[in-house]
Amino acid sequence: MNDELASLSKSTGPHSNLTSNEIDLNGSLLPTNNLRLSLAEPDFVKAAERFAEIGLADTGPEFKRLRLIWSHAGRRALYFALADGPRSSEAALRVGMSRAEASTHLGQLESIGLASVRTYGKLRYYSASIGPLLEALGETSLAIDAIHDYFSTQTRIPVSREVLQYVRRHATLIKTAQVLSSKLRLGIYSTLSNQIYENGLTTTEILQLYPEITSRTANHNLKKLENAGLIVSTRYKMQDPNTYRASLATLITVINDFDQEFGEYSLVDLRNKQAFQAELPRNFISKSEKLCKALAVRSNLDTLLWLSKRGEAMPLRYTVERLGQSYTRQEERRVAELRNVGLIRTKSNVENGARHLLLTVNWKPLTNLLYGLLPA
């Protein structure tokens, strides 16, 4: 926790005294003489905002969207204006926004679980939640204490503590795998990432490379690749066709997510130029398609990540139960799918007369896929 927070008392609610420090509107500490943060003054809200800002700065990439939404002063003002569940028009009036602008910001707060809405005819009543902040900052956070105290004092209705899993770990990998689970999209991206076509290709040129598809099919798949951030399109003049180029940003995000969780170069060593220059095997596209289909399933990736964290061979039954799922034949089929693409290695072990299937993770197929898609 930041030293700035450590200097404050654990309880920072509206009924607690700050014996030696107070937070000014800029979030810096000022000496006081046992002054109290009053709910009537903006200092208390500013203190709560500052606590959350400092805490969120240390959170991982899975909370990137929460940090982005919290960083906007207008949205934070709206969030604290929801203390007694006002209508959207009332919330807008309180923070000096137009109704249209407030509606947009309230929609963004709702999308990540910081606000919930009840509709009565044409009227929409909003209430606040600390669930997403609780998930990011933890139960003992000073921000959680301060914000909870603020809302519970301002209204008799307790603020919701429901945690909304609005962002999941390695979401970029899942989205990328879903898009690349098509052999055609995988082939197009692989072609565009080739240095031969570093200046990009137009739709017409792509159709020449893939004569079996129609223009409509090409545009549909190019749009999906673009929406996933895997390619970018440019047009120099209005009359010119779109030129498509591969974008490395998404793949680099996947690599960085693994680096942050398992250590630098845990999945791909970006310094290893030889690996990028290796010739792709003939069945690269078909093998990669099956691999992406397996990685596109959230529960599959959860199993792999948990096994990786254990760092040892684990029994199948224990792995399934540890993830909060029931042991069924479906789980065995899931493991068989991961084993077929090489992401899991299995071996049998007999203990006390009982046969156990032990699992270990093998990230090499994913490493090979990324080496194959990243240009040398």
What's the pLDDT, averaged over the residues? 77
CATH class of the largest domain: Mainly Alpha
What Rg is obtained from the alpha carbons, in whole angstroms? Answer: 26 Å
CATH superfamily (homologous) name of the largest domain = Winged helix-like DNA-binding domain superfamily/Winged helix DNA-binding domain
Count of separate structural domains: 3
| CATH level-3 fold name of the largest domain | Arc Repressor Mutant, subunit A
Q: Looking at the chains present, what oligomeric state does this protein adopt?
A: single chain
Q: Mind describing the biggest β-sheet?
A: 3 strands, antiparallel
**Strand arrangement across the biggest beta sheet:** 5-7-6
Strand segment tally: 10
What share of the residues lie within helices? 40-55%
Structural class: alpha+beta
Using the alpha-carbon principal axes, give the shape: globular
Task: Quickly count the helices.
Answer: 19
Order of helices and strands: HEEHHHHHEEHHHHEHHEEHHHHEHHEEH
What would CATH call the architecture of the largest domain?
A: Orthogonal Bundle
How much strand? 5-15%
Low-confidence stretches: 1-41
Q: What does this molecule look like?
A:
The protein is of the alpha+beta class and 376 residues long. The protein has three domains: 152 residues, Winged helix-like DNA-binding domain superfamily/Winged helix DNA-binding domain (Arc Repressor Mutant, subunit A); 121 residues, Winged helix-like DNA-binding domain superfamily/Winged helix DNA-binding domain (Arc Repressor Mutant, subunit A, Orthogonal Bundle), CATH 1.10.10; 65 residues, Orthogonal Bundle (Arc Repressor Mutant, subunit A). It is 50% helix and 12% strand. The protein contains 19 helices and ten strands. Strands 5-7-6 form a three-stranded antiparallel beta sheet. A three-stranded antiparallel beta sheet has the order 8-10-9. A hairpin with a 2-residue loop joins β3 and β4. α5 crosses α6. The longest helix is centred in the first third of the chain and has 15 residues. The protein is globular and about 65 Å long. It starts with a helix and ends with a helix. The N terminus is likely disordered.
